[in-house]
Each structure stands twice: as structure tokens, then as C-alpha cells.
Write a structure and sequence with these properties.
Layout (H helix, E strand, L loop, with lengths): L3 E5 L7 H16 L3 E8 L4 H14 L9 H7 L1 H10 L2 E5 L3 H8 L5 E4 L28 E7 L10 H11 L4 E4 L2 H10 L5 E2 L9 H7 L11 E6 L5 H13 L2 E5 L16 H4 L4 H10 L2 E4 L2 H9 L4 E4 L7 H9 L6 E2 L7 H5 L4 H23 L1
Parallel strand pairs: 1-2, 1-4, 2-3, 4-5, 5-6, 6-7, 8-9, 8-10, 10-11, 11-12
Length: 378
Amino acid sequence: MSKKIAILTQPLIFNYGGILQNFALQYVLKTLGCEVTTINRIRKPSDLKILIGKIKQLLFNHHQNKLIFNSQKAEIYKHTKAFIDKNIQYIDAVNSTNESLRNICENNYDAIIVGSDQVWRPQYVNNIYNEFFDFLADNSKIKKYAYAASFGADKWMFTDEQTARCKELIQKFEAVSVREDSGVLLCADFLDKEACAVIDPTLLVPKEVYEALCSQFEKIDYSKKHLFTYVLDQSAGKDKLINDIVVNYNFEHTTNQAKFSLEGNKDKEFVLEDFIYPEIEGWLRGFRDADFIITDSFHGTVFSIIFNKPFFAIVNEQRGASRFQSLLAKLQLEDRLITSNTEISDELFNKKIDFEKVNSLLGDLKSKALDFLNTIVK
């Protein structure tokens, strides 16, 4: 009889990397013979609450995110929703409580995994204690694990109260793995728990699986070399760096993003089409067909590596630099990490990546990660 496993991760809504890491973890666990379901915890305020929020925002200007109604959100996220529905086994837990999560889990699963992504970064989650399974009864028979859980930073960001409670909860885990080397130290120093470092699950899935996902997108016959970019946090410095590379090295430039995100764009005129997220499959096609990639995204960096493409990763301090540094150090690719102020010389740009070596190093990391996942299955 196959083991039934539940996964907790960041909400599956629009984040390409977050969606694909969950797809990947499910894919690997299924290949190991498990039945897998993601408990998709999403917050869905009523349109009345959204209207009240818009009025408060107008009066007090307390945050810069654009607030829109649920029907507009559904249109903006229709492509990512279609991918999730097709490729991920999940149940929605809307406005979940400890009681509702406990009812979903108890007597339905043999094990529960938190991960991957920045699930242990308090600022990025609704309730940090849920990420340590506080909703399960003390006598629950469900085995608890963490796979590639990320703190998102190399500094401790929990309050004293959060530290004490999470330290207590994590002792009930059967085994803990984190995504960055710094996370191993944070677990030991602040949670008194031994952990090992494993790679993001997207790196465990063969490239051919991702190629199959985007197979309906034929390769475009570009007239020049093709630069693909995926930039989460736009800035004048990044725009200049990309434009200089386009001009200096004669690239044709494409991307696969919404023109604007809802984050930080309160004052942007709301034209629905400008906010719609394109297909994830088209995003994968961008990596597949690129001659060169520039990204400030962790998963943008990951997929550049998966598709063996030359790339630069612009360090993203705001979203967590340690994620980039840990992965690239393991693959001896530290020189691919730049800032928006880096002077791109011909020597740096033309330096070849030894992907035969990278893939060999990655193979060793895959073996370690699969060993960890096998402990859950067995």
C-alpha cells in the first residue's frame, strides 16, 4: 500500500518558481510510489473586505500594493491556475484555521512535509507556527518532515516568542532538511535541531519533463541571438544592465511576465491586461530557447542551470541573497552572481560555463536529496 503524503508550502497562486517547486516535489514523491496532495492554504477576503481595504488605503496610504476584487484576480491568475489544475494534486484550504487543517490531515495522511521555498521566513507566511505543524494533535500519528525548507536569509528573523514555540514544535519532526547551508546553522543555533542541506526539488526533475510541459510552444526562429530575462524587482540599474548587454552583444530580447504585478504598484492605472500572468509553459519555453539568460529570481537561476544556459543571476538582497549564494557555491558558479552595478566585461560575458562539471556536481546533490526523500517513503 502506497504511503499518503501531504505537503504544506507557500500558496499556489501566481509565483512560477513556487508552483514549479511544488510540482517537482510531487513528481519525485510519485515516482517513489507515494500518493501526494498539496494542502493549498489561500487567503480569500470577501469583496466587501477588499472594498474596505481600498478605502483605508486611500485614507491612510499604509501600503503600496494594488487591491482588486476577486473576479479580477481570477482573470489575472487564470493561466497559472490552469497549470496548477492540470499538473498538481491539491485541495484548497481557504482562510484555513488550525481546526480546519487538523480535520484535513488527521486520518488521511501517513506523513506531512513542509517545503520547499521560503516557508520558514516569518514575514512571508500567514502563521509561522502552522509551518511547524502546530495544528496537529500532540498524539497525532502523522510523521512530520521538512524538505528543503528555507529561512530565506542567513540571519535569524523570528521573535523570541516565535523561536521558543517553533523550537518546541520542531522536536516532533522525524527529520529536517533545509535548502541553504545557512539554514543548517540556524536550525542548530536557534531551534536545537539537526538538519541537512538539500537542493530545491525543481533540480531533481529531469529536464525532459519540463520540456514536455512546454512542448506545445514551438521554438521561435529568432533573427538574432536570444536573450531571455526574468526580473522580479525592476530597477533603473537592472534595466540599464540588460539594455547594455542587448546592445553590446546584439541580442533579441524577450521575457514572459506580466507588465506589472499587484505588489508595489498601488498608483499604476489598472488595465487588466497589464497585470495578467502569462502561461508557465511559456516561461519554461523562454529558458529552453534562450541563448543567454539574466534573472534576479532564485528559480530563474535554477532553470537556467537545468537547461544548461549561460546566465547571470542578479543578487536579490530583498528576497534573500543566501539562496543564490548557497546553490551557486555548491555548483562552483559563484562568478555568475552579479549586482546591477557590476561592470560586464567581454571576458566575464564570454566565459564558458563547464556544464559537464556542473551536471556532475548536481548529480551528487541529487543523490543526497533522494536519499532523504527515501527515508520518508520507507
